[in-house]
Amino acid sequence: MSQMKEERGAILRRRTKHDDDLPDEIVLDIFARLPVKSLLRFRCVCKPWYSSIANPRFITTHLLNHNHHHGYLIHIRNIPKPSSGSSRSSGQVCTLTCDHTYETISVFRVPFTFQSGFPYFVGSCNGILCITNYTAGSKVVYLWNPSIRKFKRLPDNQFRNMTFGIGYDSQNNDFKVVGISRNFSKSNRPPEVWVYSLNSDSWKRVELGISLRPNVLYFDGNYFKVLPFVSGHLHWMFKMSGGQERHSTHMLLSFDVISEKFKQLQLPDDEGRGSCETKFVNSFKGKLALIKFESGAQAAQPHGVLCSIWVMREYGVIDSWNKLCVLSIENINFCISFTKDGLVLVQKGSLPVSTNGEIERKYKNVLIDPETLHEKEIGNEVDYHFDVTAYMESLVLLDGANVVSY
């Protein structure tokens, strides 16, 4: 027994010798493949590990190793206001689910509140959630990383009536939030465009750089949906009316987050015969997607709409627009997003019913397979305001400036 203790002590002594330690580059390579939760614990082991894990280069390497591990959806919903009648929101709750099975992984509160309006997702990029408030007043914008329990309020600006998007500048290892006026009038004034850089922690004004048609009203056509970040570009869909146009037309703007330049992308030529046409853009399996809604005689159900889905197979190549499918959807409230596997997530609403003298309408979320057209109802009945975006874990914001831990 004493001999075994001596041998075990010798092994422990050998393991503590620096000559027998693994090289630092191998240790960091192992760390870069581990989940965020493990790395947060390892920061407490020693000062060298603490500083190495917080190093921006390591955070970027860890991000690249895990960037293909998408497969989560995160939902946000409001908590009802307290009965006291306070005008301040009582908070919001997020639910993290697997986007394939839609099973709930965790439920947690949003660690900040808004004085007015309700929150909605600007987008999700490399583990960072960008959230702002839907209100006619001034905008407040947050970056939030739930996996490391940290958030950051962006510097205030006099933003009003702006639509935001978030993207990653891979050349400068920088996250950028871009805001553009939600509508701009016929006065030929260009829209306001602001770009926030996480590296500089500041906003700057940039020019649109695109000639606009005279006497035309432009207004946001993406209806507070998450703006797609595809191939290093953010995308906005604007609807145009007035001027020489007899009917409303659409304009698709693309913003390169590296060069900070706008360009206009041509939409596929697909004139429908239905009415109440709506178009917006999204991301489908990492590619730019166009969703078009039509109601009218073409819909199979009396309360249905036709949903045409187009995908740009090769980014920037107009001829690569390809019609993926056409869905006939009954009682749709709005299309939310696509899952990693390409399923369409929509919200449906029942017809209004009278309950105790009050008109009510209930909502549910449904996954639709665009190939088989199979529909699967997921979760329980949900509130009208239901926001969702893709999500992944990361270490971004771990030791950033003006970051709040909770």
From TrEMBL:
Q: What is this protein called?
A: F-box domain-containing protein
Q: Which residues form a coiled coil?
A: none
> SMART domains from the xrefs?
FBOX
Q: Which SUPFAM superfamilies match?
A: F-box domain (SSF81383), Galactose oxidase, central domain (SSF50965)
**PROSITE patterns noted in UniProt:** FBOX
> Which stretches make up the F-box domain?
16-62
For this protein, the record's InterPro entries field holds:
F-box-assoc_dom_typ1 (IPR006527), F-box-assoc_interact_dom (IPR017451), F-box-like_dom_sf (IPR036047), F-box_dom (IPR001810), Gal_Oxase/kelch_b-propeller (IPR011043), SCF_F-box_component (IPR050796)
